[in-house]
Design brief:
Layout (H helix, E strand, L loop, with lengths): L6 H42 L4 H12 L4 E8 L2 E9 L14 H6 L1
Antiparallel strand pairs: 1-2
Amino acid sequence: MSAFFSSKTLFIFLIVICISIISIFNYLIGLIKCATLINEERQAMTQSTKVTDELIREIVGAVEALRYGSVEITVHEGRVTQIEKREKVRFGHEISNIRPTVKAAARN
């Protein structure tokens, strides 16, 4: 038996070190793969979200056509797929201009 380590203890120690190094390499490889996938996804998103002049004209046209309302832009997988315009019609608040509903008229 040696003064510091027996050969069996040294062998086990080396195996544990090798397993630790392999685990660290696997972890680093996983991080690199993850970073690569994120980068590829980012590039795909920026390529698919290119805003064209036609799209800008459609959005501006929808906004300019409204007096009161909203314009909703639907995006699916990084691409504009739909522009929806909701228009509100506002009425004055004068009591004389408001007609009662059928239910309200029946109650009177």
